[in-house]
Amino acid sequence: MNRDIEAYTQVYLQENYADFEEIMVHYRRKKMLSILQNYQPKRILEIGCGVDSIANYYKEYDSFTIVEPSKKFCDKAKNDFSQDKKVKIINDFIEMQISLLLNHSKMSALLKNQILDEKLLEGLDNMVKYMPHLGAEIFINAKRKKV
């Protein structure tokens, strides 16, 4: 899979593209803020922040990690959070960072605490095959199963 992230960045910022994207961003942000306010997570991973990270709107975190492949968007996030030591920003594709973010012990703990299960992992694996063609973000919210 070969993606030209800089070409994508330029298209994303074009005025005719940005008009519709601005509307989509508004609704995605509204949905994500609703989820964040409902679950009140303290450790957050944002995959692809674009020009405006959700961390600009949700402040109730202990740590916030942003993985953003576009240098332009990454630089904007670094500027936005230059004074916030709880925010870590990584300029890379998530596929290149996943082993650092979710290592064996962390994945084992997620499975043990029933936050993840084999069906969800299978679904995530299958989604990866199709994500580049969907054209919009996929948000996954995993919560602990009630026993």
Offer a concise description of the structure.
The chain is mainly alpha-helical. The chain is built from six helices and three strands.
Task: Outline the secondary-structure elements.
Blueprint: H1 5-13, H2 15-39, E1 43-47, E2 63-67, H3 71-80, E3 87-90, H4 94-101, H5 104-112, H6 118-134
Parallel strand pairs: 1-2, 2-3
Q: Structural class, please?
A: mainly alpha
pLDDT below 50 for ≥5 consecutive residues: which ranges? 134-139
Largest sheet at a glance? 3 strands, parallel
Q: What is the radius of gyration?
A: 16 Å
First-to-last CA distance: 40 Å
**How confident is the prediction overall: mean pLDDT?**
79
Query: How are the strands ordered across the major sheet?
Result: 1-2-3
Strand portion, in percent?
5-15%
Number of helices: 6
Q: What share of the residues lie within helices?
A: 40-55%
Beta strands, count: 3
Give the overall silhouette: globular
SSE ordering? HHEEHEHHH
Describe this structure in words.
There is one protein chain. By secondary structure, the protein is mostly helical. Helix content is 53%, strand content 10%. It is globular. About 4% of the residues have low confidence.
Descriptive keywords:
single chain, 147 residues, mainly alpha, globular
